[in-house]
Design brief:
43% helix; elongated; Peptidase_M12A; metalloendopeptidase activity; MetalloPept_cat_dom_sf
Length: 117
């Protein structure tokens, strides 16, 4: 009985004499939380098209003009349009058909003109 009264066997005292263990666990937990936050921020930056932190190479307002060359079949062109729509739905970057007034345009094309068989 005397031993129990001195704190031996008392679960509330477990780890009380080991502050370094407790702070180590807290530090590990804090690092884990920070790492998760950084991963979430990186994921969000990628989603928003913000891979370039300087902003020098970003498309204005996240809008990307594109033009599809006539090297594709109608079916291929349809698939490209569907992929662009999916990209627009899953990210904050918006691809849109280029107008004649835009200087910088993404050209989606194929230089391959030979037989594929």
């Amino acid at each position: 009985t005397e031993l129990l009264g001195s704190g031996v066997g008392d679960e509330s005292q477990i780890g009380a004499n080991c502050p370094e263990k407790s702070s180590e666990t807290d530090t590990t937990s804090n690092l884990w939380d920070k790492e998760l936050r950084l991963l979430e921020e990186a994921r969000q930056r990628m989603r928003n098209g913000l891979v370039d932190p300087t902003g020098m190479y970003r498309w204005p307002n996240g809008r990307v003009p594109y033009r599809i060359t006539n090297h594709f079949s109608k079916n291929d062109t349809k698939m490209i349009h569907e992929a662009i729509m999916e990209f627009n739905n899953r990210t904050n970057v918006r691809f849109h058909p280029a107008q004649g007034t835009e200087n910088d345009v993404v050209v989606i094309g194929s230089a391959y003109t030979g037989c594929s068989s």
